[in-house]
Automatic annotation (TrEMBL):
<dbReference type="InterPro" id="IPR039261">
    <property type="entry name" value="FNR_nucleotide-bd"/>
</dbReference>
<dbReference type="Pfam" id="PF00175">
    <property type="entry name" value="NAD_binding_1"/>
</dbReference>
<feature type="domain" description="FAD-binding FR-type">
    <location>
        <begin position="10"/>
        <end position="112"/>
    </location>
</feature>
<dbReference type="InterPro" id="IPR017938">
    <property type="entry name" value="Riboflavin_synthase-like_b-brl"/>
</dbReference>
<dbReference type="InterPro" id="IPR017927">
    <property type="entry name" value="FAD-bd_FR_type"/>
</dbReference>
<dbReference type="InterPro" id="IPR050415">
    <property type="entry name" value="MRET"/>
</dbReference>
<dbReference type="InterPro" id="IPR001433">
    <property type="entry name" value="OxRdtase_FAD/NAD-bd"/>
</dbReference>
<protein>
    <submittedName>
        <fullName>Ferredoxin--NADP reductase</fullName>
    </submittedName>
</protein>
Length: 247
């Protein structure tokens, strides 16, 4: 679920819900029929409008959603953390066959073209949704880009798409996956557990100034990470940011 301001574009595409599933604690994925003519780049988002909402408030019936599915995949997929907000309670009750409207996909949180420049994704929580799309498409296309994903959650149970991401790491020799669980039981989790800082990044990025960085997650986390990267010499133009609120 994104925290971006709604652009209030006229909805263009109607999509029907095929299925939904819980993919992590309090996190739901929704799979939609891909409307005819609907095209997008991995990492794009679009505004979703609910049909016949219980309320007429535009802020309740519309939200900007990142597309977690990759362009090559047959279905569209969105994912969100479920909370007590009116919008999220509405979508949690969606049943198969529910129809919504999507507008034109857009956004600049997409993989850079220069294959010689590494990409480092530093992601928190449900901020993984556009990155799942980017990594899936890069793996499918067998892109030569060197990709590193540092993905922080509290526990494995709260981390969405772990199975997918581990699978991409097995298939794609150019992709390094670094999951971090900051509150996991040490008897059940042997991986990284520290907060993301300069030391953590340097552990997995040999030349910290070489990559283009993609930061996505809660606004406070994104702000702190951006400041940290700038302090260690990363150019501001090499940092791309998406902020997710509404957890």
């Amino acid at each position: 679920m994104r925290g971006k301001e709604i652009a209030h574009m006229d909805p263009k595409y109607t999509a029907k819900l095929i299925r939904k599933e819980e993919i992590a604690t309090d996190t739901m994925a929704f799979y939609w029929e891909k409307p005819k003519g609907f095209t997008f780049k991995a990492g794009h988002y679009c505004d979703m409008t609910l049909n016949k909402p219980k309320v007429t408030d535009e802020d309740v019936k519309e939200r900007a959603l990142s597309l977690a599915s990759a362009p090559y995949e047959e279905r569209l997929m969105t994912a969100t953390r479920i909370s007590d907000s009116a919008f999220k309670q509405w979508i949690e009750d969606f049943t198969v066959g529910t129809e919504v409207k999507f507008d034109e996909p857009r956004g600049e949180f997409t993989l850079h073209e220069d294959e010689l420049i590494p990409a480092v994704f530093i992601i928190g929580g449900i901020g993984i949704t556009p990155v799942r799309s980017i990594i899936a498409q890069a793996t499918y296309d067998q892109l030569p880009h060197k990709l590193t994903l540092v993905y922080s959650n509290e526990t494995p149970e709260t981390a969405a798409f772990m199975s997918d991401l581990n699978g991409y790491a097995e298939k794609n020799t150019n992709f390094t996956f670094v999951p971090i669980m900051t509150d996991a039981n040490p008897r059940e989790w042997s991986g990284e557990s520290d907060l993301i800082d300069e030391t953590m990044v340097k552990k997995y990025v040999s030349d910290i100034q070489a990559p283009i960085y993609y930061l996505c997650g809660p606004p406070g986390m994104v702000k702190d990470l951006r400041n940290m990267l700038i302090e260690v010499g990363v150019e501001n133009n090499n940092i791309r940011v998406e902020e997710f609120s509404g957890y």
